[in-house]
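Q: Convert this sequence to structure tokens.
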Amino acid sequence: MKWIGILFALMALVIGLVPQFTNCSAQGRAIQLPDGRSMPMKCHWTANATPVIAAPLLVAGILLFFSRGQEARRGLSLLGSILGFAAILLPTWLIGVCANDEMVCRLAMEPTLIFSGTVSAAAGLFGLFLARKNPAGNVD
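A:
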């Protein structure tokens, strides 16, 4: 289970850091309103929301790395899986990214969040399976 904790921590770093550099606002782009004001695009708000997923996933990974109890491992695996699904939902359904297929957020941020979320969710589900299969909790 220690490797799942390490995987959670690595995916949390990817989820938290990559969107900060691959959103359109970081590239100097914004929507120009008719009155001259500029407004951030949807990918800006997705990038601002990713630390909310990354921070608890990082904590779950660290705690899972050091945990010994079966119930703790089961709960942390479930939490990591839920946070992985949330990372997938941010760019696809909850907030979204820009509609233009040539924007950096569509080319880099969205696939990165989907991949990292999928890896986290799958690792969490596998951790649940391991914790259930071995009731003694010796799954390292």
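The chain is about 70% helix and 5% strand.
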